[in-house]
# Entry
Amino acid sequence: MQWSSSEQQGCVIASPDGRVDEATAEAFTEHLAASVTMAADSPGKKLIVDFAGLDYMSSRGLRALTLAKRQADAAGVAMALARPNEVMREILAISRYDKLFPVSDSIEAAI
Amino acid sequence: MLVRFWGTRGSLPVAATASIVQDKVAHALLAASGRSFADIEEARSFARSELDFAVSGTFGGATTCVEIEAGDPANGDAFILCDMGSGLRGFGLDAMRRCAAGHARVYHFFMSHLHWDHIMGFPFFVPAFDPNAHIVIHSGHEDAEEALRRQQEEISFPVKFDWLRAKIEFRTLKVGETYQIGAVQVELMEQHHSHSSFGYRFTDAEGKVAVFSTDSEHKLDRMEGEADVEQFFRAADLVICDTMYSLADSVSMKEDWGHSSNIVAIDLCHGARAKRLALFHHEPVYSDADIARMHAESVRYEELTREHDPLEVLCAYDGLEVSL
# Structure
């Protein structure tokens, strides 16, 4: 799994690439945790997970998002998801994760 | 092996109200759109083949009871049942009919756990009053007898457990052992649920496998343990799985309520390379349309995340029979 991070208007933008399944879920979880820590030190105290490079995600990835959200809530960091592809948008709807996280079509809208 | 669902609802029995039935009739009339039918059979055929199941039928409202028919019942093989929810009443009446036709009066029960919705059918289980019946209640719990006796104390029910006329035995099973019971080999797995629950893996002489895994929460902080669950489900012909909540509900408002989601069930069955999944233990507040929608979404999620052979996703309903 490829992972990159950047900062935009004081918010941390975390950009995973590929797919999140059983084989990559652990790396995804660790990257998310590090990104929350990074966002806690950022001026905007916000983490935006950019889904543009993600093909799809199984429940392991979705549940990793929940663990990251708990860490974020405890650190006063807001979390949002941005730019899911059509498959990911469907998975977020079927799992009802679109009720747990704000989901935006662009990074700008997520900020 | 034949799996017959007598009760598929979670937590509490539910029944359709007059307004629910009227709504189904109204939708059926709209779908018929002015057509006429020569007789009731033609109308039934239309209902079966052209209406959505949520309109023409119902997923039902009886709580957990599943029959595993294995071996050769015509030649003396015993009944095999999972749990004693309110669906057990219907099974009991049907079993009396089958016993009158020569079926052995031996009943092996396998208890997931002892919560009320999983034992409430036993006081209404007619074969328990049959002096020629032999009932063996297998459980991973050591307190199964206490639970069944307690619900028939006078404060809760007018017929005491000791008044039942069948020969009733209790056997505690151990995780890690393989038992030959009736026409099946049985293994069990401990699951996360209040007061614990147990899943069962049944294998018949032909190698067909059915797994019964209800009232099982797959915890966020124990995801590494899911490899053991996949191993228990491995290559099963049918996995009956607790899919009571959405994934979002199961990790938020309803965390620690002891249940799982359609999403996790599909991922576990994919990992196990199981052939079929039956969505089970339906949320009692769900309408038939809600359950049908959850089924359609589950089928779609399976398609989106499939990496190997397709997993057939069924939605259990009271009366469903699945031949393996």
User: Anything to note?
Assistant: Chain B touches chain A at residues 220, 223, 246-249, 251-252, 261, 263-264, 266-267, 270-271, 297-298, 300-301, 304-305, 307 (CB under 8 Å). The CA atoms of residues 266 and 302 of chain B lie 6 Å apart.
